């Protein structure tokens, strides 16, 4: 029997639905932030990937992360259409598990990894290491050793101190292809903590102060390193094309200076990711199709003006592929009125989604699985942790009769939630469930108390 046709309990079947209902989530064509498969069902239910969300909550418990496989694949294909003849690397830091590795490989994407852990998980899943790029502003010896041992295609050099360390680790008689991460001096991104294209942060080597040029000279002098191109990453949650076009012009200018000073024409240019998505209806998102066309046109024009061949382009989307494909389910534990505020506390929080605490992000949670005739009221959805900053959504409209036991669904939960999850209060990280074609399967099981205790070997 399909999971989407499982019978309701006798109590559910005997309970007639109220006569009036709060409207179901809008369909994706109307500007929804839900996955394309999201569909309203009777009695306040919503299905994703053909599976009712209440069924998933009952089967897997809450909190639970739901990942729409078809949405992930659809977004991978959209990038390949927007960026033909381009290396599209999925940024593993957004979210990684074995199934995600398998999906992006099948769809023809490469993989951008930031640690030996991400690298090993991908390789042991069967992902070809030559289609990977290793990043990191402070790569450990273990990171570099794993990359060289497994044969990673590209390593992005982020500091001058890394050059000699990496060159010394490359086996004799071989060469490692590298990119140099350049800071182009462009401010872009949705929050100060996720802007990485300026000189006042930890990533990359500045064009303005000559650090990038110095690193290029040093890399070219290392016989075991093969400099194949430049890399930059402007930040995250960028919703306009203009910063990327500015970056293209500045990097092409640097490519021209490299040819002039060293007689070397670098064949690759990696523009990173940071492509913004909408977390709430009405918010802006980066138009990937427009981005691809305009970047390629700018690159061709800038190279023609500089007399350079057009380098092989690469981009690294992460959030824009995984984020909108995810929905997280929470169960309401408590409802509390304090003065003029109504707080709705759920069974998850900052341990599975630290983004609101870190960046002040706002979401659009929704009651699912129950009809309500109550007028909506502004509420603050908070987590279960012992921090005043454990707030998942502020001033969101939910039915005034919201109560313990209700199920809330929060869309756009596929990126930078579980990948940044912590062990705070030892509650255990939630499971990840894939849905497609009316079926659900567990990808990552819930972290249990036994898992946590096994790591504690003290006394």
Give your account of this protein's structure.
The protein is an alpha/beta fold and 459 residues long. It contains 13 helices and 21 strands. The protein has helices at residues 10-14, 53-60, 69-82, 98-106, 116-125, 141-150, 160-169, 211-220, 242-262, 288-306, 319-322, 355-359, 449-455, and strands at 39-40, 46-48, 51-52, 64-68, 86-91, 110-113, 132-134, 154-157, 176-183, 205-206, 225-231, 268-270, 312-315, 326-338, 341-346, 366-368, 376-382, 391-399, 407-411, 432-436, 439-444. The strands form 3 sheets. Strands 4, 14, 15, 16, 17, 18, 19, 20 and 21 form a 9-stranded mixed β-sheet that branches. Strands 5-6-7-8-9-11-12-13 form an 8-stranded parallel barrel, surrounded by 5 helices. The chain has a 3-stranded antiparallel β-sheet with strand order 1-2-3. A hairpin with an 8-residue loop joins strand 17 and strand 18. The longest helix is centred in the middle third of the chain and has 21 residues, at 242-262. The model is unreliable at 1-30 and 190-198 (pLDDT under 50).
Concise structural overview:
This protein is α/β, with parallel strands linked by helices and 459 residues long.
In terms of per-residue confidence, which ranges show pLDDT below 50 for 5 or more consecutive residues?
A: 1-30, 190-198
Instruction: Compute the number of helices.
Output: 13
The largest sheet is: 9 strands, mixed
The secondary-structure class comes to alpha/beta
Distance between the termini: 49 Å
Identify the overall geometry. globular
Helix content: 25-40%
Q: Compute the number of strand runs.
A: 21
What is the typical, i.e. mean, pLDDT? 90
Provide the gyration radius in Å. Answer: 24 Å
Strand content bin = 15-25%
């Amino acid at each position: 029997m399909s999971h989407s046709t499982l019978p309701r309990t006798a109590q559910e079947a005997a309970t007639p639905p109220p006569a009036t209902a709060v409207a179901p989530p809008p369909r994706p064509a109307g500007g929804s932030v839900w996955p394309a498969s999201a569909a309203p069902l009777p009695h306040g239910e919503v299905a994703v990937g053909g599976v009712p969300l209440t069924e998933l909550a009952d089967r897997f418990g809450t909190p639970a992360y739901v990942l729409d496989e078809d949405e992930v694949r659809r977004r991978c294909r959209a990038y390949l259409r927007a960026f033909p003849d381009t290396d599209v690397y999925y940024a593993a830091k957004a979210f990684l598990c074995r199934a995600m590795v398998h999906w992006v490989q099948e769809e023809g994407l490469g993989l951008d990894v930031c640690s030996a852990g991400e690298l090993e998980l991908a390789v042991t899943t069967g992902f070809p290491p030559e289609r990977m790029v290793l990043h990191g502003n402070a790569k450990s010896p273990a990171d570099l050793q794993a990359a060289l041992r497994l044969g990673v295609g590209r390593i992005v050099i982020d500091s001058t101190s890394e050059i000699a360390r990496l060159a010394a680790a490359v086996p004799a008689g071989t060469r490692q292809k590298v990119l140099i991460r350049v800071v182009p001096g462009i401010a872009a991104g949705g929050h100060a903590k996720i802007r990485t294209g300026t000189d006042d942060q930890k990533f990359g080597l500045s064009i303005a102060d000559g650090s990038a040029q110095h690193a290029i000279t040093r890399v070219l002098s290392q016989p075991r390193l093969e400099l194949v191109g430049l890399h930059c990453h402007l930040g995250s949650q960028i919703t306009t094309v203009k910063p990327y076009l500015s970056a293209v012009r500045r990097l092409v200018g640097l490519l021209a200076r490299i040819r002039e000073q060293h007689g070397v024409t670098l064949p690759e240019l990696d523009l990173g990711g940071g492509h913004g998505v909408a977390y709430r209806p009405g918010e802006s998102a980066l138009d990937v199709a427009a981005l691809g066309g305009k970047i390629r046109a700018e690159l061709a024009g800038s190279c023609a003006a500089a007399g350079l061949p057009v380098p092989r382009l690469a981009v690294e989307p992460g959030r824009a592929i995984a984020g909108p494909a995810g929905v997280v389910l929470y169960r309401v534990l408590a409802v509390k009125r304090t003065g003029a505020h109504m707080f709705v506390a759920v069974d998850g929080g900052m341990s599975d989604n630290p983004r609101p605490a870190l960046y002040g992000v706002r979401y659009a949670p929704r009651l699912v699985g129950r009809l309500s005739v109550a007028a909506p009221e502004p509420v603050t959805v908070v987590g279960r942790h012992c921090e005043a900053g454990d707030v998942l959504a502020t001033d969101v409209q939910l039915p005034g009769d919201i109560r313990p036991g209700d199920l809330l669904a929060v869309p756009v939960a596929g990126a930078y939630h579980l990948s940044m999850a912590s062990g705070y209060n030892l509650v255990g990280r939630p499971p990840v469930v894939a849905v497609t074609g009316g079926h659900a399967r567990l990808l990552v099981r819930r972290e249990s108390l036994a898992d946590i205790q096994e790591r504690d070997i003290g006394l």
